């Protein structure tokens, strides 16, 4: 097993993230991630394959971090997603949109604009800025609500992030993190929103001691409860790694400890964030994780942003050649227990080889899109 390394570049409301890994089932193969989000149009299938202001008050009652949450609770029957909620929100600030606006005459622009910039993607909150996070989250969620669309937000500030690798950062300790989560929750609004809670926080927890892991998982369970209490229409998903990492049984055990089986904190799991594993592999893996987790009402979401050709055979993780866009983002997959295909990673943002980590590379974006 080879330890993972990564790099975070924070910018405004979002950030680019990368991480290198080696071989072995128990190590993540990639940890590249973007920042803002791309645009929104009708969602045809792709061949397969912020503003800052004074922060508003945090919730006055702050649940304590108890010990690691209990295992699965009985779940109510899963609700059918309304047709109006199958449309995802394109946040109007992203590096790809900046490039498109600044290069009207570039011959690559039409392809990049139509296939990447005009698609919805997640908005990351990876920088430690407690004084502005409420206003910044609210700007995204209110923007989605105004259009009747569903935003995807990614809180990424857990202490010990990336196990001390290049993506280290975030909150200085769990008490500060819990306070940041309070402020994040205050910006979630009342409309539908998808929350991708802390990529790698569960799958990459083996580097922590048993006590540290229990404390982290208690904070994650608390975060899910707080998000769903603040906005009952929020759908919160927990980190399931990807199909090339842990076995479904091991991942489900970790997820259960983090509160992912409880209906008061979780709607299910996410997988393949910033990775390249094929959609069919992720569907099978996620269903196996859900079966092992024991939650009949839980679902899964899959990052399909760059998995159109599957993962590189050689395990390359840094802007690997030959990759393609995956399935278009949608909340209507036609697959049982698969709630969404999302672009959590913004295609074209570099892992660190085509450009500085988190920066937009038009050549890489063009190669992915054409």
Automatic annotation (TrEMBL):
InterPro entries in the cross-refs: Beta_cellobiohydrolase, Beta_cellobiohydrolase_sf
Enzyme Commission number: 3.2.1.-
Pfam family, one: Glyco_hydro_6
Annotated region described as Disordered, given as residue ranges: 18-79
Class of enzymatic activity (EC top level): hydrolase
Biased composition range(s): Low complexity: 30-61
GO MF entries: hydrolase activity
Record keywords, A-Z: Carbohydrate metabolism, Cellulose degradation, Glycosidase, Hydrolase, Polysaccharide degradation
Family per record: Belongs to the glycosyl hydrolase family 6.
Annotated PANTHER family: 1,4-BETA-D-GLUCAN CELLOBIOHYDROLASE C-RELATED, PTHR34876
Protein name: Glucanase
């Amino acid at each position: 097993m080879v330890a993972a390394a990564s790099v975070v570049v924070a910018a405004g409301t979002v950030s680019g993230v990368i991480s290198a890994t080696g071989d072995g089932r128990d190590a993540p193969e990639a940890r590249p991630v973007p920042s803002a989000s791309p645009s929104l149009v009708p969602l045809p299938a792709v061949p397969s394959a912020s503003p800052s202001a004074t922060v508003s008050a945090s919730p006055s009652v702050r649940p304590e971090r108890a010990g690691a949450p209990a295992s699965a609770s009985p779940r109510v029957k899963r609700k059918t997603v309304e047709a109006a909620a199958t449309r995802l929100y394109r946040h109007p600030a992203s590096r790809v949109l900046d490039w498109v606006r600044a290069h009207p005459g570039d011959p690559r622009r039409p392809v990049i604009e139509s296939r990447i910039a005009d698609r919805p993607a997640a908005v990351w909150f990876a920088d430690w800025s407690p004084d502005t996070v409420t206003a910044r989250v609210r700007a995204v969620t209110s923007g989605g609500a105004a259009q009747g669309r569903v935003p995807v937000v990614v809180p990424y500030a857990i202490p010990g992030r990336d196990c001390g690798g290049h993506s280290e950062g975030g909150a200085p300790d769990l008490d500060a993190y819990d306070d940041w989560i309070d402020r994040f929750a205050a910006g979630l609004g009342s409309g539908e929103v998808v929350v991708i809670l802390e990529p790698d926080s569960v799958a990459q927890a083996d580097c922590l001691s048993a006590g540290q892991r229990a404390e982290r998982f208690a904070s994650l369970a608390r975060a899910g409860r707080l998000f769903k209490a603040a906005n009952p229409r929020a759908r919160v998903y927990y980190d399931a790694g990807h199909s090339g990492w842990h076995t479904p049984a091991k991942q489900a055990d970790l997820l259960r400890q983090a509160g992912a089986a409880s209906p008061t904190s979780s709607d299910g799991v996410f997988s393949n964030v910033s990775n390249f594993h094929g959609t069919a592999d992720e569907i099978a893996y996620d269903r196996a994780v859900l079966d092992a987790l024991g939650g009949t009402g839980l679902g899964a979401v899959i990052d399909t942003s760059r998995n159109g050709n599957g993962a590189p055979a050689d395990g390359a993780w840094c802007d690997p050649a030959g990759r393609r866009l995956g399935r278009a983002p949608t909340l209507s997959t036609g697959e049982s227990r698969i709630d969404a295909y999302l672009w959590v990673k913004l295609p074209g943002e570099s892992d660190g080889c085509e450009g500085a980590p988190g920066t937009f590379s038009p050549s890489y974006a063009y190669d992915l899109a054409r």
